[in-house]
Design a protein that fits this description.
The complex is a heterodimer. By secondary structure, chain A is of the alpha+beta class. By secondary structure, chain B is mainly alpha-helical. The chains are: A alpha+beta, B mainly alpha.
Amino acid sequence: MTQGRRPTRAGRRPSPASAVKAPRRRRRLSLRTRSLTRLRVGFLLIAMIVSVFAARLFQLQGVDASAYVAKAKAEGVVSVTLPATRGSITDRNGTPLADSVDGLMLVADPTVTTKHASQIATVVAHRLKLDYFDVLARLQKPDTHFQYVARRVPSTTARAIVATLDKHQWKGIATRRDPVRSYPSKDVGANLVGFMNDAGQPSEGAELMFNDLLAGKDGHTSYEVGGGNQIPLGDSSTVEPRSGHDLRLTVDRDVQWYTQRVLRSAVQDSGGSSGSAVVMDTQTGELLALADYPTYDANQPGLSKQSDLGSRALRDVYEPGSVEKVLTSSALIDAGKVTPDTKITVPPTLKRQDRVIHDYFVHPTIHLTLTGVIAKSSNIGTVLAASQFDHEELYDYLRDFGLGQSTDLGVSGEAAGDLPDWHQWSQINQDTIAFGQGVAVTTVQMAAAVNTVANGGVYVSPSLFEGRVKTVTGQVVGSGTSTEHRVISKRAAKLTAGMMEAVTNPEAGTAGVAGIDGYRVAGKTGTAQRVGTKCGCYNGTFTTSFAGFAPADKPRFTVYVVVQAPTNGGGGGSIGGPAFHKIMSYVLQKYAVPPTGTKAPTPKIDW
Amino acid sequence: MSTLMNQARTRVPRFAPRFAEAAVERARLTVVPRASGRRAARVPFMLLVSVLLIGGVAGLLLINTTMQQVSFHQTALEDRASVLAAQQQSLDMQLDQLRDPQHLATRARKLGMIPPADPAFIQLGTGDVLGVPTAAVPDGSFRIDPLPTKKPRLLDPKPIVEKAPVTTDGAAASSGGAAGGRKNGSATDRTGATAGTMTGRATTQQQGSQR
């Protein structure tokens, strides 16, 4: 344009030379000037408008950008947490004990739901037993497109609600994935599995101890929506959730159920305060069942007392009583101090230091073999036999049997029991410890100790979880970490098992009811004075128990039943014995363990 | 366009003094007409451009629409998938409930079945019986259901027991007792209580007469 102007001026100069054409030129020139002016004004206008646009653009993109982005997000972008599926907890066969079920969450778009908020809230609050006004407030929340209405709703319920709302054309409620924890077996294994509380946090049991393993990692997604559908090519980002790992228990659900029901009957019928029962695989040390009573329904833990939510078999310690005689006598045999036929003269009472030891049955001076001492469960006989040990010997044996040491199963609050250090023993301590008083154990500890005798003298550390798993405290537990060590010789174990067979002998022993027709069953009753929680002293209540294994000459399972504080006057034989019989019969039948076909020798109990 | 022509015209006079002006004038007059052929060639080009433009817009629209439709379809299919998954899961849960040992035991009990006391096996190959087959007896069984929950004392009061008086002799005493008995049988606790006092009085009378 500027170039065009210069020649025009240059052209003007020579214009006087040709006077004839001058007026025409002038007219042309004025025309040109006018159009030029118009152009200039036009361009100026355009430039002004464009600069206004540019300024606005700069303002939008440069100055207020973040504010607008945020505003845009609030308008149409939805961001949701994608909950990870929690790993399931199964029994040894993969039957779920704790499972994540495909639940749904109900979410609302308040811009849509506001219209029919009261009707929707009525339906939702009624069906899900929620607070009506809380739901209503969520449905009417201004300036948002996303509100949680209810979480962890079973999918069938959630879908039924949405279907009802759809029928009435009340729009704005949608569903999203939200796994629900369910415990299909209810109270079966609840003491081991634990539960998730209302806030979705793990409480108790394996849920708590293996939370890191089970939890997985939540993902999240954000995307733009229009009319309920994701806008294609719209901004979206998704981080997929990572599912948790499964956890497998060594427990068999059916055995666990059976054991729990038998235990419950035993505790209730004897008027006991609580009880536990253990079924252990003799060779592997795996616990096929670990039952507690009272226990709770993992789906409704709130209905039970806080003290019932854990596993008593692992948390509570008690004095084992006569079952301990198995350990003492097997140690004596192993040390070569006695044989099952060793003759012992048992006086009616025995004065030791300042205390007098009695037997539970009144008798004159009797002549029993060691087998007879075990079969009749004589305290005095055991004390006399055990006095051949010095403190340290007995202590070392009991320590090897696992007493006073945590079984490290991977359950929170597991007790270690209490075996006092032998340096602090006096003679009376050794005497009472020999027959199971003055020493405290957990149910699993004692089962594992008796199992040593069943397993040919080799202690196998018990396990409750398959493989190698890491707890939240960093401890690696499970059947993969199981250790073994020899405590007594194979021969000593065999001889002890023979003595224990006399216990289930209907004529000779204290627990004929525990015997199973056709099988050789080894067992031992226990009736111990029990320390009350209130006074911390023996309060006149008892701990009755029965431990045993079968078949006695080729053991497959060790079963141990403990009933605390029975009120019907029964002992280990009459309360624990029948329960042992039922549980043992069941596992032998379930795992198809036929009788060995050999006959138990007639026990020689006296001389 | 006109500016260009103006330029052409005005530029020429610069050299006018040097060369013959007539020739310059002539030269100015020569306006080369545009070839008509070139103008005609523009039509297919325009056509091409507009076809491309319309095609592009239409294609874009089409793609957009399809994608929208696919998005709807995706949402619908996802819904269907989750409905089916939920259905499968509820069926699985039903199956689990049916498999539940508690459920099986309840059903078995209803059929009158109880667990065997002592297990025994038959060796299929030889027909040998291993173990001692024993008849299952209810005594050897156990409860599969929890005991009924104890009612609170308020809802489960002890039954009120009233001892009927010993009516050996005395018409008044026996009639009183009979009246008490009738009232007792026919009415609520309160009338029972009054009946009790009545019988009580009757007894006193009786005792009195005996003395």
